[in-house]
Amino acid sequence: MDLQHLFRPDLKDLTAYQVNAVSHQIKLDANESPFDLPDPIRQQISDTISKLSFHHYPDTTADQLRGTLARYLNVPEDWLVIGNGSDELLAYLAQIFGRQKAAVLFPTPTFSMYRIFAQTAGIPTIGLPLNDSFDLNASLWQQTLDRQQRNLVFFAYPNNPTGNLYDAGVVGDILSRRDTLVVMDEAYYEFSGQTFLEQFTDHKNLVITRTFSKAYGLASLRCGYLVAHPDLINEINKIRLPYNLNQFTQICATIALQHRDLIASAVAAILRGREQIYESLGKIDGIHPFPTEANFVLFRTQKPADLVHTSLIDQGILIRHFGASGPLANCLRVTIGTDSQNQRFLPAIRQALR
């Protein structure tokens, strides 16, 4: 029995997000923190979990976590919604967005899920190429935005995979439009220190998302949050799945926020590693690293990147490869690891270039 006639035809050519299993000793491909939770956080989580009742549903609005976040961010609690990873919340934005004479826009290259969120919601997508500096083309953006009555824009800030921050003035001009909802995906905020959070006073159409997967080292638990005007939060809550965030994750994220000094120490170590990796790559013949404000470094190789990637895998090191064509041709991205991992990577990349 052929089931295809029961499915949406516009999803026929959509490809599922895939993560291929590759044997490795050192994993530096997914922008995860190289550090597991510090012992004081683990101990507090263990003590708290031991007193839990597991037969009840979790708090459907994660009130304790929202309250802790509200105090940390200095925003009202009703400006916050918590998700099973920030991906869930980004997908909700596409679902609540209007359909008539509308489009979802994003720079290219950027986080691939923005396009998938729009396609699954049935909204046309427009990817606008970045310039040679991986920044926004102001006139191109304004001309393209003028063509629709409704625009939903996704900006990764810093951008993934390029690592740079966009021109804040160009973003500000887009925020000033009445026909555009602007989402600043600040997944790597802790590494850049740059945010649009203070812009809420002037821009009701601003949305900010962040995650606990990167700096906080909680990627396995899937927790993110969204900050926006209550009018938008109310729309998200209409479609948000009940009990979308389990109790264990709520507790872990809340406790991690209470130990931001320990998280800041890990971030500082990653930033030191980032400087070392960027400077070291810049001294290697045949490599051009791009400036970065995230926890990774994108670099281009003169030697075919697929050969470099394969050589690194043979040496037990897994990083991200972006293919042989397009704006990221012969580009690789390495996540900043521990000191020992970084010291393994640098001679390995030299060996791969021979």
Overview of the molecule:
The protein is an alpha/beta fold. It has 2 domains: 4-30 and 261-352, Aspartate Aminotransferase, domain 1; 52-259, 3-Layer(aba) Sandwich (Aspartate Aminotransferase, domain 2), CATH 3.40.640. Helices cover 37% and strands 17% of the residues. It has 12 helices and 13 strands. It has helices at 39-49, 63-73, 86-96, 113-121, 138-145, 168-175, 189-192, 230-239, 247-258, 260-282, 305-314, 339-352; strands at 26-27, 80-83, 102-108, 125-129, 150-156, 180-185, 206-211, 224-227, 287-289, 296-301, 317-318, 320-321, 331-335. The strands form 3 sheets. A 7-stranded mixed β-sheet has the order 2-8-7-6-5-3-4, with helices on both faces. A 4-stranded antiparallel β-sheet has the order 9-10-13-12, covered by helices on one side. The relative contact order is 0.16.
Short overview:
With 354 residues, the chain is of the alpha/beta class. It is 37% helix and 17% strand.
- Distinct helical segment count: 12
What number is the mean pLDDT? Answer: 95
Number of domains: 2
The CATH superfamily name of the largest domain is Type I PLP-dependent aspartate aminotransferase-like (Major domain)
What letter string, H or E per element, gives the SSE order?
Answer: EHHEHEHEHEHEHEEHHHEEHEEEH
What fraction of residues sit in β-strands? 15-25%
N- to C-terminal distance: 54 Å
Q: What is the strand arrangement across the widest sheet?
A: 2-8-7-6-5-3-4
CATH level 3 topology of the largest domain: Aspartate Aminotransferase, domain 2
Number of strands: 13
- Helical residue percent band: 25-40%
Architecture per CATH nomenclature, i.e. the level-2 architecture of the largest domain: 3-Layer(aba) Sandwich
Structural class: alpha/beta
Calculate Rg over CA atoms: 21 Å
CATH class descriptor name of the largest domain: Alpha Beta
Query: Can you summarize the main beta sheet?
Result: 7 strands, mixed
In one word, what is the shape? globular
